[in-house]
Every structure is written in structure tokens, then in C-alpha cells.
Amino acid sequence: MRIALLAHLRHPIAPPFAGGLEAYTWTLAEGLTARGHAVVLFAAGDSDRRFAIDPVIPVHHEHGFPGMEHRGDPGLKAHVDAGYGAACDRIAAGGFDVLHNNSLSRLPLERPRTAAVPTVTSLHVPPYDALRWFVHDSLAPGHRITATSRAHARAWWPSGAPPEVSVLHNGIDPAAWPFQEQGDGSAVWCGRIAPVKGTHLAVAAARRAGLPLTLFGPVEEPDYWTQEIAPRLGGAIRYGGHLGGAALAREIGRASVFLFTPCWDEPFGLVAVEAMACGLPVAGFARGAAEEVVGEAGRLVPPGDEAALARAAVEALAIPRAVPRRRVLRLFTRDRWLDRCEALYVRAREA
């Protein structure tokens, strides 16, 4: 198939990834290309050049509009809308068999656009006012919508999802997150360093539990880093930087427990799955899709309770490392995910 992938524009679609959405889109492009599809990635122009890139904007917008993603900045909105509008026009005229929309923009959801090209839209965020109405209004036979978990689907459609909507769990390549038989007794945390990810709660829980902790990931909000995280570093708590690929997998695999601390209704939790693939049990907050993702591979506690999280981290150390690895191999592999994507493309085209 000739497939257009439409990406979010805040960060480049390139490693080391700024977050799960960038990892998702990159892995999708790589996996579909490996399966013989002709893939064009519509993304920021500074994305990974190993793919065929059609730039939606020349450079990711965090570069020119730092920190403006959630502030309703009119300049950023006009910049992004102009890019997406033109890109949607090129996709409509480009002879594509299907569009897989991961953009978080309202423009690809408009009915004339989904009527022009069979479309699969993957939702990656909880329902919020700027997007909710457009998603609900976009339902049509040739437009399939996916949520990343059952909890995510319930958040968007509390009364039950319509037939055009299905759950599409994220998937990873287990070979990229190799299993390690034994950890060193420490804890690890990975993600965007921002209040919504609860980095400070991971630090507090690790100190309570007496566990060494290493943090990995990009500093998304500098003020939060300066005020809440940097002063807490030292001794057994350290920052390991923003790593990607094999280096990050090696560092995570050395640890013995993964701390998962969302302070919002996380739609999935890709970082937890990556750690589980390395053999790490999870101690985390039971919020969003956490229970659906972690299952028997960890211990979950009420959101925000750092004392309970500390106890859960110690308890999770007793879970055999083969348990989380098996759960990933059963439910969250890249091949399983790509099979589902291809089936959705066929259904959208047939409709």
C-alpha cells in the first residue's frame, strides 16, 4: 500500500525521542516500510531522513515556539494550521491508499478530507475541548478511529464507543529492549520531565524506599526541573540524561524496578512497556491505562500517594523478571500492533 503518515509537529520524529508519540510514529514508519509498504512521513522537516519526508513545517515547532504547546498561542496555532491544511491537500492529491493520522489536529478529521482518502486516526491524548467535538463529528464508514487502551476509549466515549472505534494497543520491538536476567537493586524512571509525568513523586518514593534511582528523559519544563527536580538530585538520586535506542535500553535493563508516576490519565504508558520488556516489574499509580498495561507485572497504588508507591516499589522487587517480559511478548509486540494497523487500513479502504 501507499501510506501517508501524518505526525504531530511539536518535536521531530527522530531518536532520541521526546516522548511516546514520537516513538510511536517513528516505529510505525519503520515497521510499515520494512513490510514493503510505500510510506511517506508528513512531519516536521527535521525528522529522521531515513524516511521519505514531506515537511508539514520546516522545523519542529518547539524550536520556534518553545513552551507554547498548551498555552493557546495564536501565532503557533496559525503556523501549525497552515502547515496541516497544505499537507492534507497534498495527501488528498497524492494517490495514497490510506492516511494514518497521528497529528492531534482537527483538520484531518474534517469530513471532506476523510471522504477523499480512507483514514485511520489514532488518538493519543485524553479528550480535551479543542479536539473532542471534531473527533466525535468525524465518524464515517471510511474513517476508523483507534484508542490506545480500553480506559482511553471509555474516556472518549463514556457510554460506549461506536463501531468505527477500536482499541489498538501500542507495540514495541522486543529485540530493541533486550531482557536482562538480573538487576542491580536500583529503581529507574523514564519520560518527559514535566509535572504531568510526576518525576518528583518518583524521587520522593525512591528516597522513602531507600532505593537508588536514575532518571532519564528530556527536560520539557525548565522551571519544573530547576525548582522541583535539580535540588533533589544527589547521593543515590541521579539524572542519567536524555538517551535513545540501545543506550537507554541498557541503562533501564540494569535496574530492578521501574517507577511509573503519571499525574494525568495516561492513555497507554509506552515507557512502562519498554521497561517491562527488559524484565523490570513496575511500581506505579493506578491511573489511566496503567492497570490494563501493567497487570500481573507490577504493583499499582492510588495516584499521588508517594508513601504507598515506596511500599509498592519494594513489593515489586519480588516479582520474577520473566513475568513482565512474558506480558509484553503476549500483548504488546510491534508485529501484533502492525498486523492490527494493516487490518484497519484494509477496513477503511473497503468502507
UniProtKB/TrEMBL annotation:
* Origin superkingdom: Bacteria
The name this protein goes by in its record: D-inositol-3-phosphate glycosyltransferase
Pfam families per UniProt: Glyco_trans_1_4 (PF13692), Glyco_transf_4 (PF13439)
Matching entries from InterPro entries are given as:
Glyco_trans_4-like_N
GO MF: glycosyltransferase activity
Residue ranges constituting the Glycosyltransferase subfamily 4-like N-terminal domain according to the UniProt record: 19-175
